[in-house]
Amino acid sequence: MTRVRDFGAGVACIATSAMRRAPDGDAFARAVADLVGVAPRVLSGDEEATYSFLGATRRLRGDDPVGVLDVGGGSTELAVDAPARAQRTGTVARTRSLEIGAVRLSERHAALMGAAALDSATRATLVAAARADAAAVLAPLAAFGPIHDLVVVGGTAFTAAAMVAQAPLRDGVAISAADRSALVDALLARDLGARRAMAFIRPQRADILPAGILIIDEACRLLGVDTVRVSVDDLLAGYLYAAAEMKRNPG
Fold first, then answer.
1. What are the per-10-residue average pLDDT scores of the chain (251 residues)?
2. Contact 76, 215 (CB under 8 A)
3. Residues 223, 145: contact at Cβ < 8 Å?
4. What CATH number should be reported for the domain holding residue 108?
5. Is residue 64 part of a domain?
6. How far apart are CA 129 and CA 208, in angstroms?
7. 0.90 exceeded by the pTM?
8. In-domain check, residue 247
């Protein structure tokens, strides 16, 4: 951090869902502050949604509404607005944060995580139960639909996009409902070791990836969307973009 400050750069630290619900969050924040000299700023769910939108749409200029879905480990956020309006104001018209994410859904349906490869009947039963669980929490998203242009960000989306494209992550990869279904089925048919050996998968995400994809898929169903596109710019990009804009225009 000293070297960073030597270059005249400011240091910021943000935290999301895990910190919002962590029982030892205050102690962790103090430890981070002691280490880097800055206490984490714990973002609200609406702030997460806003920064994800500003990041994912920063290169768009349209006046037509766009939705940005961010599936994290502990929560899922949706933001909807016209990119031009959001960029002009630094705000997003409609946001929603819901307490379901890839880690939480995996914890509630542990068989998703790959302790064993599952046969087709077991896969179908497990997917149906996990979908129903996710759908119950995501139900408020139905009020936002239908959305004709949905952008997805987050680790699940990044990994899924690379696997669908069979290429390193790039901006704008499309993921259809059929793609999502095929990925979930292929992952659940493998144990964790075999998943980690799959091309373009991030090994540290192999256990929670099926749950994350199911959350994306259920959100899409509620929003009336088949195919989504992935943006490589996400919450962090949006936060930095907003901070830079505020520095340039402090008023």
1. 66 82 86 86 92 93 93 96 93 96 97 98 98 98 94 96 96 97 98 97 95 98 97 91 74 57
2. yes
3. yes
4. 3.30.420.150
5. yes
6. 16
7. yes
8. no
Q: How many domains does the chain have?
A: 2
What's the token pair of residue 97?
């944060």
Residue 238, CB-side half-sphere exposure with 13 Å CA sphere: 28
Say if residue 34 is in the same domain as residue 51. Answer: no
Contact 67, 231 (CB under 8 A): no
Domain with 27 in it: 2-42
Residue 31 within any structural domain of the chain: yes
User: Both 63 and 30 in a single domain?
Assistant: no
The whole-number pLDDT of residue 50 equals: 96
Q: Are 130 and 218 in contact (CB under 8 A)?
A: no
DSSP for 17-71, written as a single string: HHHHH-TTHHHHHHHHHHHHSS--EE--HHHHHHHHHHHHTTT---SS-EEEEEE
Q: Which amino acid is at 224?
A: G
Closest C-alpha among 86, 46, 88 to residue 66: 86
- Answer whether 101's CB lies under 8 Å from 130's CB: no
Distance, CA of 69 to CA of 86 (rounded, Å): 16
Same domain, 157 and 180: yes
Amino acid at position 83, single letter? P
Q: What is the pLDDT of residue 167?
A: 96
Taking Cα atoms as reference points, which of 210, 229, 195, 182 lies closest to residue 66?
A: 229
> Do 128 and 73 have their domain in common?
yes
In a shared domain, residues 33 and 135 = no
